[in-house]
Backbone:
């Protein structure tokens, strides 16, 4: 990331000598005292758990081991082979993928549309921005409840509304092929954060570029395509990555609406909403299959890395950073 | 300049971090509401139409929470019959239930409130210490440590979730074996807020940007006066970075208020539940598939209860929500 390079190194003698002499300075020790909370937390709550998680992913660690009645056995790559063998893994990956490719572009397009409208609304923008932002501060559990009842196929107001304009709405929350679009629609509804980021980016586009484009006789569409989009592409890219990671980890809405203890519908319909993060949670904390769940977590880590890497590589072609050589 | 002397803080500091230079719409607040001119009318109409889509679910929800059982889903915006579903006499099960009778709802709300506030305060100040160290001090390994910090932002929480749970489980067993210790571990609320003592990478990154906007002269002057490093942090850096600290605080309060996963993992006893887990419990119990007799009005009332504090927080701190989000995107 760019900000790493932004950190300027202190002047002084070069290399290892400076490095060592640094520890003789009082300031260094004070700095490390200030850093202590994070360093401790990093070692105990991040690095240590990462190593343990890696270890568990090669073991049969489970409920017997937690209770201390059985030894932990290393099982080699067994858990990773199970990732291939378990048909639910392929299912959850498919569900998560379908949901992600609906939710991320949907959110960005709607958020960009709203941001463009807000920019033109001028003096009234503040009022409408507040309204558009409200869904963003709605707790995911509440969104899950709204999914269940607003989109209910028989009594939900969404289908009532659609029937007013002559459309017979689907059984959003019961029909397996409509569950993921429904969840994605609710996420698009909560696009306020993305909208504000993009709005800030829109205000960052220098006005003289539009004036120059207008002088050259560029149409509104050309101004949008050739001035606005390139200039806000860093913000678009940022939103794209953040939203993708959020989609891959999506849990609370779908879990509230379609899973739970005592839920009689724990079978059929829910499989359509079984996201990877939900299945991981179930394996770890419902069946206490910690070894397998750890392997699942590392697969998620690998997927996150690959997706981000691909995003970065693709973005090299499309994202325009002001003042950079590209 | 003495430690306490921030009377004459220059506006340049705030501008360096963003907010002052922003247009009204990104600064928060509604601004002036002038008469619309003829040119504005189509836009205003379109925006009003869209606003309905964004705000109607809230109106629907609040309205549904005031309807008697059986009318919850009649979709009337104004209830035909008003009914207070929140508090009331205890009935045996077939009769309509009231929200505060079906579970320790007051406990759930209070748990979420104190965990959110405590977690917000703790993470704000622990992150500020670390951010200050990265922004002000020059020390060996700084770039490496900062790179590691940024790297942890990419780590899915699932990777550390299981070992951290097992760690808390061990701590729990240990505190039970040594009965003179307070019981800390899984099944208690400690795992929900204790990690906030150790800072959080995202907030550290956010605050560091802000601390770097404070002119170094301030700290040099304080050093001339013989102030300690702690005084420099507490009396100069923290007051000047207040906007960034408030952003951290409200973001973390929101995150804690939203969190369902961690309470699901760690809490077992209903009295210790947080509001999201409490609402999830109600959904499981009273939803049609939960085998209940359809006390949906209880779920609606519970949902209103969990949404309202966030609306209040947003009303009070709207400026910081918007500024916090809009400055976030620029880091790219």
Residues:
């Amino acid at each position: 990331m760019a900000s790493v390079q932004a950190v300027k190194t202190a002047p002084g003698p070069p290399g290892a000598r400076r490095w060592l002499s640094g520890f003789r300075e009082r300031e260094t020790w004070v700095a490390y005292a200030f850093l202590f909370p994070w360093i401790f937390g990093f070692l105990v709550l991040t690095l240590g758990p990462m190593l343990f998680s890696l270890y568990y992913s090669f073991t049969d660690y489970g409920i017997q081991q937690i209770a201390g009645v059985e030894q932990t056995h290393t099982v080699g790559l067994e858990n990773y082979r199970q990732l291939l063998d378990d048909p639910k893994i392929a299912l959850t990956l498919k569900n998560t993928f379908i949901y992600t490719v609906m939710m991320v572009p949907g959110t960005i397009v709607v958020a960009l549309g709203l941001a463009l409208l807000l920019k033109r609304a001028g003096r009234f923008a503040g009022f409408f921005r507040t309204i558009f932002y409200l869904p963003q501060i709605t707790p995911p559990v509440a969104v899950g409840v709204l999914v269940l009842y607003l989109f209910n196929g028989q009594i939900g107001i969404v289908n009532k509304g659609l029937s007013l304009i002559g459309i017979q709405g689907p059984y959003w929350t019961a029909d397996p092929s409509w569950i993921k679009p429904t969840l994605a629609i609710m996420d698009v509804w909560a696009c306020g954060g993305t909208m504000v980021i993009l709005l800030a980016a829109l205000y960052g586009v220098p006005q003289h570029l539009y004036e120059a484009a207008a002088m050259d006789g560029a149409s509104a569409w050309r101004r949008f395509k050739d001035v606005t989009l390139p200039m806000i592409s860093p913000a678009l890219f940022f939103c794209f990555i953040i939203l993708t990671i959020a989609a891959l980890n999506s849990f609370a809405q779908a879990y509230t609406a379609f899973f739970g203890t005592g839920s009689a519908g724990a079978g059929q319909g829910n499989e359509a909403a079984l996201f990877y993060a939900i299945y991981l949670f179930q394996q770890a904390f419902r069946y206490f299959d910690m070894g397998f769940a750890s392997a699942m977590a590392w697969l998620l880590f690998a997927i996150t890395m690959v997706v981000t890497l691909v995003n970065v590589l693709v973005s090299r072609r499309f994202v325009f950073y002001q003042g950079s050589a590209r | 300049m003495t430690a306490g002397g921030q009377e004459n803080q220059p506006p340049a500091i705030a501008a360096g971090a963003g907010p002052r230079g922003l247009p009204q719409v990104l600064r928060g607040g509604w601004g002036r509401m002038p008469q619309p001119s003829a040119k504005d009318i189509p836009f205003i109409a379109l925006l009003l139409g869209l606003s309905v889509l964004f705000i109607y679910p809230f109106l629907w929800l609040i309205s549904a929470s005031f309807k008697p059982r059986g009318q919850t889903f009649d979709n009337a915006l104004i209830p035909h019959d008003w009914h207070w579903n929140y508090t009331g006499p205890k009935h045996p099960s077939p009769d309509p239930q009231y929200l505060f009778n079906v579970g320790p709802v007051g406990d759930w709300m209070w748990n979420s409130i104190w965990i959110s506030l405590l977690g917000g305060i703790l993470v704000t100040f622990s992150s500020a210490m670390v951010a200050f160290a990265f922004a002000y001090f020059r020390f060996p390994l700084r770039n490496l440590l900062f790179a590691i910090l940024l790297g942890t932002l990419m780590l899915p929480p699932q990777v550390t979730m299981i070992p951290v749970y097992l760690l808390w489980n061990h701590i729990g067993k240990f505190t039970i074996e040594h009965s003179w210790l307070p019981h800390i571990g899984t099944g208690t609320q400690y795992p929900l807020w204790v990690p906030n003592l150790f800072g959080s990478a995202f907030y550290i990154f956010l605050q560091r940007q802000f601390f770097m906007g404070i002119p170094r002269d301030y700290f040099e002057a304080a050093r001339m006066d013989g102030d300690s490093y702690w005084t420099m942090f507490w009396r100069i850096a923290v007051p000047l970075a207040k906007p960034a600290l408030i952003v951290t605080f409200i973001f973390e309060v929101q995150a804690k208020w939203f969190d369902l996963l961690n309470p699901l993992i760690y809490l077992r006893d209903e009295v210790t539940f947080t509001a999201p887990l409490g609402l999830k419990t109600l959904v499981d119990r009273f939803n049609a598939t939960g085998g209940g007799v359809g006390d949906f009005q209880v779920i609606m009332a519970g949902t209103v209860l969990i949404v309202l504090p966030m609306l209040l927080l947003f009303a009070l701190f709207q400026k910081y929500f918007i500024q916090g989000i809009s400055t976030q995107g620029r880091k790219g």
